[in-house]
Specification:
Its EC number is 2.7.7.3. This protein is of the alpha/beta class. The chain has a five-stranded parallel β-sheet with strand order 3-2-1-4-5, sandwiched between helices. The chain is elongated. The protein has a single domain, classed as Rossmann fold.
Length: 174
């Protein structure tokens, strides 16, 4: 049985990777699908192509995981790909209510099932938006994201990281 793990992945986090790695053990093939909405262009830190590249690098070690993108309704993508299972990660009870509504809607309009996988407790506080914020100040996000995401965030915020590292050198030398 195959499954789809949809999201914006701006960027993929260690929590996403935890859910994805576990899903890859449960399903024959898992497609990580970057869902993009033309009306939301410019709201992401990374372009669609950058997110796809980060995902491909981050998932290269998982032989039964592929990466794709789609702009439209997830149920339409599921029908086109002839897939029937949606994977959704949950960090906390607060995620459940929203995800439950979406799961019911997807089943109603697309006859697809959703499987929820709880992220490991150590990742329950990590979100892409929080990681982006920490990185925008040059903070250490290396444990919160896979290496591909960390490298991409450092490139996006190279000036901030360079400034922070210069300040740290000055403190240790002075």
């Amino acid at each position: 049985m195959n499954a789809v793990f949809p999201g914006s992945f701006d960027p993929i986090t260690s929590g996403h990777m935890d859910v994805l790695t576990r899903a890859a053990k449960m399903f024959g093939q898992v497609t990580v699908t970057v869902m993009h909405n033309a009306r939301k262009q410019g709201r992401h830190l990374f372009t669609l192509d950058e997110r796809l590249a980060i995902l491909r690098e981050a998932t290269a070690h998982l032989p039964n995981v592929s990466v794709d993108s789609f702009g439209g309704l997830l149920v339409d993508y599921m029908a086109q790909q002839q897939e029937g299972i949606i994977i959704r990660g949950l960090r906390a009870v607060s995620d459940y209510e929203y995800e439950l509504q979406i799961a019911h809607l997807n089943r109603q309009i697309g006859e697809v099932e959703t499987v929820f996988i709880m992220a490991a407790t150590r990742w329950s506080f990590v979100s892409s938006s929080m990681v982006r914020e920490i990185a925008s100040y040059g903070g250490d996000i290396s444990e919160m994201v896979p290496r591909a995401s960390a490298a991409a965030l450092r490139r996006k915020h190279a000036d901030v990281y360079a400034e922070r590292e210069a300040e740290q050198r000055a403190r240790t030398e002075g």
